[in-house]
Amino acid sequence: xxLAAIRWMRSSYITQVPLSIPAxxxxxxxxxxxxxxxxxxxxxxTGTFIHPLISFVDKTFVIAExxxxxxxxxxxxxxTRALQPALWLLIFGQVFARSGMMHTGNIPYLDFIAPGxxxxxxxxxxxxxxxxxxxxxxxxxxxxxxxxxPRTALVLGKGLSAGIRTLSQAIVVYGLSLFLGVRLNxxxxxxxxxxxxxxxxxxxxxxxxxxxxxxVKTRERFMGVGQVLTMPLxxxxxxxxxxxxxxxxxxxxxxxxxxxxxxxxxxxxMLSGSPSTFGLGMDYxxxxxxxxxxxxxxxxxxxxxxx
Length: 307
Hints:
307 residues
């Protein structure tokens, strides 16, 4: 399904629209005079800006489709990645919900933690960069670097594929939340918001992992750095407890943590009657701008993998 969606989005961007000139215009201008007309110069100027954008989007989807094809040969990744949110919701979530230790206002603790566990699944896209190191060892990175594909399209395409993969974990979290009685918001707009936030946030963290891979260049160092970063990012957010109970210094760090805004956007969209702490506009702005910055940094560092 994911591959079909990618192909459809690519075809929608590369569809050519024939240029039709009205009969009145063709009667007034001879073929050798059309080149100097205002109409043609306007179309040429428009095409100059639009064609590179279409080409960039097309190449980004090509890279994303290439990465998603790997799932045809090994679906175990999707299964193993679905186990962790199940353990957190079924064990950690229910135990703390029964203990009454966490005060989450009018929202039951299981309802509160469900979007946080989905955000945790998104965060684990930070280990996606190890695939880039494997590609470096197999010589695939060198082939990408000699291709005419822009470096930003390479990085963004790989991040987008990680975002689409994470949607399987979103389905698992929704299924478990429904089983546990979490009051979910099933409106189409809310589901669309969750879809967009999951893909964008997974793109963000997978791009961050690609930057780490470009710097460390070895699997052992990468796994060490990834494990060091994952837990602080998770516990310095509002995923499993509200920021109101944090000490002042941790609250400052949580406001600088992009995962905090991912959780806020997911909690606002997933749950019925859950207000946003920062506002959806602020959440989207932080996620989107951080992703753009990381994509450009990753595109700058990506050629170092070929060295």
